[in-house]
Input
Amino acid sequence: MASICDINNQKPTISYPVFWEYKVIFDAKYDVKKRVLDIVGNREHKLVFSKFSKDKKYASYNVNVLVFGDEERLEIFSALKHSAKFVL
Output
């Protein structure tokens, strides 16, 4: 397991390196592969389509990226957030 969370509102302990999963929603019209590659660069990653919204305007994906620390993990989250509609 990659992380352990203390129920006393403590910051979770994450053992790096780890494949971190981001759930991302993009406008369906975008070239998502290119956008993700622009963000993750040469890092080991996997992009998996999840589903379309009912009106097919948006598409959700799971993006798994091998990260080596908190700073890198948060940097990727921020970059995805600026490119996508929603990131978890």
